Amino acid sequence: MSYQLPRGTHDVLPSEVTTWQWLERTFADLAHKYGFEEIRTPMFEDTALFERSSGETSDVVTKEMYTFQDRGDRSLTLKPEGTAPVLRAYLQHKLGFPNQVTKLWYLTPFFRYERPQKGRYRQAHQLGLELIGAKGMTADAEVIEITTRFYQEIGIKDVVVLVNSIGGPATRLAYRDAILETMAGYISSIEPENRERIMKNPLRLVDSKDPAVIDLLQTAPKISDFLDAESRARFNELQELLNRAGIKFRHAPEIVRGLDYYSDTVFEVHSEFLGAQGALCGGGRYNGLMKELGGPETPSVGVGIGMERAQIVLESMGLMRPAPQPDAYVAAATPDAWTSAEDLVRELRRAGLAAQSSLDRVALKNQFKEADRIGARFAIVIGTDELAAGQVSLRDLASGEQRLVARSEVLGILR
Ligand code: HAM
């Protein structure tokens, strides 16, 4: 039998991995400029951490977690998102105590049992930022600024930045009732299992992709109608800050986010290349989450940026990064040249260049084929004559131009 990938997973192949490394480097550099430090948390955590943080009515908790008992009978869950583990680590190691603003970034796989489709996987990867301990809207604006700069720097220019405020708990309670009223007919028509979930958290309906729901929502009130004066002022301030930072955005009342921990600011970045269903990234403010996890009240804001979604857009735009070319392929034209060829490869590598030769000492014709296949910039050929003269022949594989040079000069020329 032949083994296949588990459904909903993907390999990052050598032809793609250079792009992934470049995305990570670009993000790490950017995060560093804004004062973020990297954190790496384990692949699994106590199940309760996610039940507590994502919200009991969220899709993540109700149907998407990869939860298992380990041999010690603990309930563990492969992380379905990156925020809760970072807060757990922050609390456990007292990272920002007392009351320091703490800026953390990460690259992490995450796991959700979703119906796989383009841009939706069961194991996917996120670049994330968590800006912990800042209550001012400057923090929200900063997270949105880094996110949009990231897309700019990787060449995804035509993004749509959607921003909304979902206020505090009182706003959501009032909005909940309004939605329940507007959508009563629809809600009574859905199957009991989903109905119960929607009744507990009708916000689930607001970013529904179901055309019938979208249609009904046209006549429903918007969450912005329910914001209290403070939330409204904060949202206005955020919009001013974004304008001042030169970030083009749109107020999008339909953005409410799928995880329950948000308050006030929520945002997503979309791209036409992903179609309607996909956000490039999503984030927002989560002032109540730290307390929910047993810590002190710590206003915070963050974002999760989907790596696979960025890749889809980069591919559609022809912006994937090619693998770096090896500098040289060293070929032995005659059997007496093998050791000299292998010594030269070692020398070049020690000097920081990427060089290869044939491990199986194949015929010259096949060595040239190999040099072409790996895309080497130069082929360096050594045979009996070159050995005797202390030279090598150096062939530029792009132009085909070939010349004899002293062996001692090769390194200088390649550099
Ligand atoms: P999220 O919206 O669930 O937020 O995920 C963030 C991003 O991850 C999405 O916008 C999308 O690009 C990508 N994504 C989500 N699910 C999948 C999937 N199944 N396959 C591929 N890509 C996916 C969070 O996870 C929050 N922790 C973000 C955050 C950080 N909020 C505050 N801090």
Write structural notes for this entry.
The protein is of the alpha+beta class. 40% of the residues lie in helices and 20% in strands. Strands 1-5-6-11-10-9-7-8 form an eight-stranded mixed sheet. A five-stranded mixed sheet has the order 13-12-14-15-16, sandwiched between helices. Strand 15 (391-396) and strand 16 (402-406) form a beta hairpin. The longest helix is centred in the first third of the chain and has 20 residues, at 14-33. The model has no long low-confidence stretch (mean pLDDT 94). The site of histidyl-adenosine monophosphate has 27 residues, from strand 6, strand 10, strand 11 and helix 13.
**Distinct ligands, ions and cofactors found in the model:** histidyl-adenosine monophosphate
Mean pLDDT: 94
Tell the overall outline.
elongated
What integer value in Å does the Rg equal? 28 Å
Poorly predicted ranges: none
Helix content: 40-55%
N/C terminus separation: 49 Å
Strand coverage percent: 15-25%
| Oligomeric grouping of the chains | single chain
Number of distinct beta strands: 16
